[in-house]
TrEMBL record:
UniProt cross-references to PANTHER family, sorted A to Z: AMINOPEPTIDASE, BLL6088 PROTEIN
One Gene Ontology MF term: metal ion binding
GO terms, biological process: proteolysis
EC number in record: 3.4.11.-
Lineage: Bacteria, Pseudomonadati, Spirochaetota, Spirochaetia, Spirochaetales
UniProt keyword annotations, A-Z: Aminopeptidase, Hydrolase, Metal-binding, Protease
InterPro entries assigned to the protein according to its UniProt record, in alphabetical order: M29_Exopeptidase (IPR052170), NicX (IPR058739)
Protein name from the UniProt record: Aminopeptidase
Native organism: Teretinema zuelzerae
UniProt KW Hydrolase keyword: yes
Domain of life: Bacteria
Amino acid sequence: MPTKQKIGQAARIIVKDVLALKKGEQFLIITNPDGDVAAISRALYDAALAEGAEATIVFQPEKTQLDYANRAALAAFNANPAACASVSANKMGKDSLGMEKPWTAANGRKIDHIFHYQMDELKTLRAIWTPGITIDMFRRTAGIDYPLLQRRCRAICRAMENALSIRVTAPGGTDIVVPVEGRTPMSDDGDFAEGGSGGNIPAGEVFISPLPGKSEGVIVFDGSLSLTDKDIISKKPVTVVFENGYITSISGGREAELLQKSLEAGEQKAKEFAAAGKLTAEEGESYARNARGLGELGIGLNPAARIKGNMLEDEKAFHTCHFAIGSNYDNDAEAMIHLDCLVRNPTIEVTKLDGSKVVIERQGILEPQFENPVDN
């Protein structure tokens, strides 16, 4: 099958089965003008038109997670689209207006990006985001068995509910205990048909936010690393020590040096924002401190994903888990960065509040009840 046809087929699956676009709905695509992301965006645009949706593509230059999005690009959200696809070579970018005048959620939380305000608070928007996606990745990983993925995600989420802590060990040297009491596991399962839902394409992970300031142990990143400006495969493993939930040491050669520089960039950006009045002094200190915090534990569940040095795909690969350094998804430990880093062949054991234990995967292999789950 020609590549263009394969892209079109994957785009139709995303539009019809993942986002469930309907006739007359506004569909906003924010992307960059060059390379694979432009071709994928056009395929999504064409697929949306075929469903009768009103599709719009907005181009902006490539952004990193420390850059601002173009204001005119984010202004398109003022049309209140029903669905959005952020198809970026790197990131959508931060919302400069939102950071200057954040929205206040019903629970009092500050929201500094219009995308998150519409999706997470108003729940009028459903979305996919694909930072760093390639044509090869899109055609291989987008057209998977979503019902099976969703059953696996539900089974693993149930295992992680009412958990006290999660211990992760791996042959590379990882041994860390992650406290999660009171946390709710989340999934990127490709079911984004309702307002307020969204996730990556490729989909395929269950993840949870560690309690801030609690994790203890060592993580050895032997898969790949996210930096502020790119992703890299770990040629030499990077050893990171956590005490009281924060990094106390990083070692491992050139890759470790690059990770250290990315953390320092996250700290520096927080200080710059505080100096410019975009964060209070207290917020600036908190954001800088959280650049060295443990923000996420995730489990890869997309059978078509491979470790390629692109974290969008890498973190979804079977036989892996990933930890993020920086912001968490419960929004109680915010930072300027969120750097996912990969561990190969983990053993993941959940300790429940009642003291019982559940092994989700052992040396990278899902336990049978999670490999072939049956919904109750």
